[in-house]
Amino acid sequence: MAKFEFNKSAKKKAPKPITETKISKPKETYDPAKMTKQVEEDYQQEQPKKKHPGRPKSGRKSYQTVRLQKRTVLKINALENALSVATQDATVDQAIERVLNSLNADEKRAYDLWLEMFEKKEK
Description:
It comes from Limosilactobacillus reuteri (Lactobacillus reuteri). Helices cover 51% and strands 0% of the residues. It has 123 residues and is mostly helical. The protein has a domain at 70-122. Helix 3 (70-82) packs across helix 4.
């Protein structure tokens, strides 16, 4: 049998030559005087922002979620349509006002105390 001879130098790859990297220069440098003029021009050319279509944001009202059963929601919707009220919120508010008007003096006093406590707690 013949002996195998291995030539290690043939297996190794020669490294690629590295070329010199040239330092690039910027086309334009920062000039504070030019920038202030540009900012002033942009400020003068700025047009008023367009109003976005959709529902307006109301900052005065604050909302909170109340969980209701589907049957109760159906009742509120039925009242809303029967009384021609604009929103569910207005329907519930109107129903609560009617209940408050039917309270006797002791119940009304207790309601006012509870309401005052909850309002202070919220702040």
